[in-house]
Design goal:
The chain is an alpha+beta fold. It contains 1 helix and 4 strands; from the N terminus they run ββββα. The chain has one domain.
Length: about 90
């Protein structure tokens, strides 16, 4: 089975953030996807050995992407200070 192991800081140049993600697929087809900040984190676990497992994994990823997209749009629309046109 194919393995995967990737991690990265979300703001690598920031002194104020230690946020990161780590995605790993093991040889046995199980996976862990972690998202952490300085204090806490979340962890998705799953099994890619069945079609159901693969579909559920993709559904989790799609829901997370959708939630992040909506949250980003809300933050930008409500908290980004646009310069007033003169």
């Amino acid at each position: 089975m194919n393995t995967y192991n990737k991690k990265a800081f979300l703001l690598p140049d920031s002194i104020n953030s230690c946020s990161m993600y780590h995605a790993k697929i093991f040889e046995d087809g199980k996976y862990i996807f972690r998202i952490h900040d300085c204090l806490t984190g979340i962890r998705f676990r799953g099994d890619l050995n069945t079609q159901t497992g693969v579909l559920e994994t993709c559904a989790k990823i799609n829901q997370l992407i959708g939630g992040l997209d909506e949250f980003r749009d809300f933050v930008f629309d409500n908290y980004f200070k646009k310069e007033k046109e003169s």
